[in-house]
Design goal:
Elements: E1 2-3, H1 9-15, E2 22-26, H2 32-46, E3 52-56, H3 62-67, E4 75-80, E5 83-89, H4 94-102
Parallel strand pairs: 1-3, 2-3
Antiparallel strand pairs: 2-4, 4-5
Length: 106
Amino acid sequence: MAYEAAHSPEHFHALISGENPSLVYFFSSDCPPCKSLSPRIEELMNRYPALVWTKIDPAVFPQIAAQNMVFTVPIVLIFRRGKEIYKSSRFVDLDKIEQILTAPEA
């Protein structure tokens, strides 16, 4: 698993700037849907160890949340070369996320 915790907004931008897709999971520790989704996200990402992913708590990094227009949790974003290519909020479709992560680049 290529999980890497973001330590700053600059580090976050470095994480999402790679050639391969990277997944960002916005969550809150007091969010019941987030508690349910977190292990499922981890399980999915364990199947793709070459892909970078991170978790961001908007309360800890409000600047990152604001820059990505995160106003609620849970939200999953997928980036490629620093550009958002997918965003799913509230009702996260893990099958769709897996399709995007494994799709050849267009």
